[in-house]
Amino acid sequence: MKTLESAGDKQEILARIASIHPQSPRRWGKMSPSQMICHLTDAYRMGLGERAVPPVALFLRAPLRWFALWVPIPWPHGFPAAPELNQRIGGTKPSDFERDVLELRATIERFTSRPRDFHWKKHPHFGSMTRKDWMRLGYLHADHHLRQFSA
Fold it and tell me: Which side of the chain, N or C, has fewer Cβ within a 10 Å radius?
């Protein structure tokens, strides 16, 4: 299963990010390519503890986390992002596309760094997660949105 822990899988995600441009056609959803780049950066920053997202009251977090991360089926389209990660509400607004892409790449490097200079934060839906969980989620979330733009 693909994960940002694997250098090859991480390079795949970085190459796919490099293939996105401001006019990349959207296959589903409402985000623009610029918003998607900022959305991914905000999501990685959430794990780093740099972007606060309040927890959602959920029962059975562990089974939900396991299903979302380890069952090999594509994620459904249209799952609403937390307002703090939604570029139309409280997420980081796009600015210069190339600068936003560089910021995403730098954030991915920090997210995957060893040793790390941060402590993993709780995920709003999944609760406490291991590095292995965060690396899998980091891959899956990027993959989901890159497929949204055919990358």
Answer: N
